[in-house]
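Bit of a strange request maybe. I'm writing a small parser for structure token strings and I need a real example to test against, not something I typed by hand. Could someone generate the tokens for this chain?
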Amino acid sequence: MSLVRTQKQIPTKSKHVLNTLVERANSYEPVSPIHLHLDAIEASAWMNDFNEVPWFRVTSIAAGRIMELLAERWSPRYGKLYHSFSSKLRLQWDAASPEEKENILESCSRWGPDSFDRLMQPGAKPDWQKTGCNPDIAPMHIYKLLFGMAADTNFLVEDRFNAWFLDMGTAALAMHAWAWTDRYCTMGGLITDEMLYWGAFDEIFFSEDPLESEGWGIKDAMTYCQADWQEDSFGAFCKAREIYRELVNDGGLSAKEIMSVAMSARRRYPLIYRA
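Reply from user aminoacidic:
Good idea to test on real output. This should exercise your parser:
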């Protein structure tokens, strides 16, 4: 059951529909990261009122919950994913030859108590200074953290990369859904954080054009972000695009089709300026 559909499971006798929507959203838990990604697509596409609750309230509640769930996974303070990631030594060990494994064992036992078992335990975090994000970053800005995480390419490997690229795409869609509910402020005439980052996310995940380091979206967002970018940071975005498209293609879809669905509300409620 999707997040938006879960919100709509409301008894018809309820006199406080908005409060019930919020309660249902707050108790919602996705089955998997791909399920949460589909929730973000649906939230971005939502364009109907529900009872007396206007469409933008329904969308903002759903998008806000998605970003809260992403924060529960990735927050520097309390993100639950970091404890499950393969440690640096585990990754080295898995890629090592028999001779290299002997050297690792010798190195771990050389000084003091043998540290091999301890260092093989799960757990890994990025270099937070490289990401350019405050450790107390708000859930509504989790998309900034995930974008800035590409500055630490030593961290974004194996299971860490696989978790990151999809959640960054989910954050992109959830941010756009939320931003469009207040589109004249977030996506209007002035350059906003949402507009800058969406330009980058659109290039990375959904654009049909080749991904280029000098593209206005990625370049502007990377310039604006306070991350300490590395030479191979752009390569992380390129790989994210490649793996994301492989994932959706395996599901019988394309990035273009996902974008068409996700932009439904944008087409229904465009920016209109009258003289």
